[in-house]
């Protein structure tokens, strides 16, 4: 609210927020949090003690329902480890979710789906800054899983038992430095080419917007070279 000129100080912001029903502040990275001014607002009579109790009650009720105040031995999730989290059942469910989340914009001449039984006799090329870089595959507010459990496009295609050639073309999504020779060499003899482009949190994230929807750096050039 301060940034939008609705209030002029953190104290005013705290008073307006609490009076409006807000009971939680997301203030990661701030040295001077807004809700740290609540005691001052209470002393000045801008908010009441009963109002604070009403705001806090649902927070602690939720935390109690989640078991945060229970002994660790009572929490069934405390016993979970990677053998459970990365069990075949969970990994298959993740695969199903990934498959069902794809959006196919155009399928010229029925190119997709690629059939596993035909792939061993074909040569595949996977190119682009997102082809084999686990660090750029996750968006803002995403967890950071163990690297061995991340399947990049290159790693996934190689599990199909086919001949896969690879070239990043550029090492980062900004793609300010681009190796055309590397990409052309990788796609030159391929029957199927998979081009992996995008942005990633290095290019756009919360509070870091882009001015247009163009592919960053030389990514469009990379795509055109692969198609040609």
Automatic annotation (TrEMBL):
Residues 103-226 form the Glycoside hydrolase family 3 C-terminal domain. The keyword Hydrolase applies. The keyword Hydrolase applies. Coiled coil: none annotated. Keywords: Glycosidase, Hydrolase. Gene3D superfamilies: Glycoside hydrolase family 3 C-terminal domain, Glycoside hydrolase, family 3, N-terminal domain. One of its GO terms (molecular function) is alpha-L-arabinofuranosidase activity. PANTHER family: FIBRONECTIN TYPE III-LIKE DOMAIN-CONTAINING PROTEIN, SUGAR HYDROLASE-RELATED. This is XYL2 arabinofuranosidase. It comes from Sakesphorus luctuosus.
């Amino acid at each position: 609210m301060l940034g939008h000129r609705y209030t002029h100080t953190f104290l005013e912001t705290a008073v307006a927020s609490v009076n409006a029903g807000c009971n939680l502040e997301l203030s990661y990275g701030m040295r001077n949090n807004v809700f740290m001014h609540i005691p001052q607002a209470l002393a000045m009579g801008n908010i009441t003690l009963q109002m604070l109790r009403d705001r806090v009650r649902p927070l602690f009720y939720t935390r109690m329902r989640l078991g945060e105040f229970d002994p660790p031995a009572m929490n069934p999730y405390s016993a979970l480890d990677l053998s459970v989290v990365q069990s075949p059942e969970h990994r298959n469910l993740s695969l199903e979710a990934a498959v069902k989340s794809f959006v196919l914009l155009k399928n010229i001449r029925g190119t997709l789906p690629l059939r596993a039984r035909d792939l061993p006799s074909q040569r595949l090329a996977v190119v682009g800054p997102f082809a084999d870089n686990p660090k750029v595959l996750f968006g803002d507010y995403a967890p950071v899983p163990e690297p061995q459990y991340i399947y990049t496009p290159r790693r996934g295609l190689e599990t199909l038992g086919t001949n896969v050639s690879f070239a990043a073309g550029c090492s980062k999504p900004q793609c300010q430095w681009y190796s055309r020779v590397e990409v052309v060499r990788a796609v030159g003899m391929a029957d199927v080419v998979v081009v992996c482009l995008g942005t990633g949190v290095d290019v756009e994230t919360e509070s870091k917007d882009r001015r247009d929807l163009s592919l960053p750096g030389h990514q469009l050039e990379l795509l055109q070279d692969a198609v040609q």
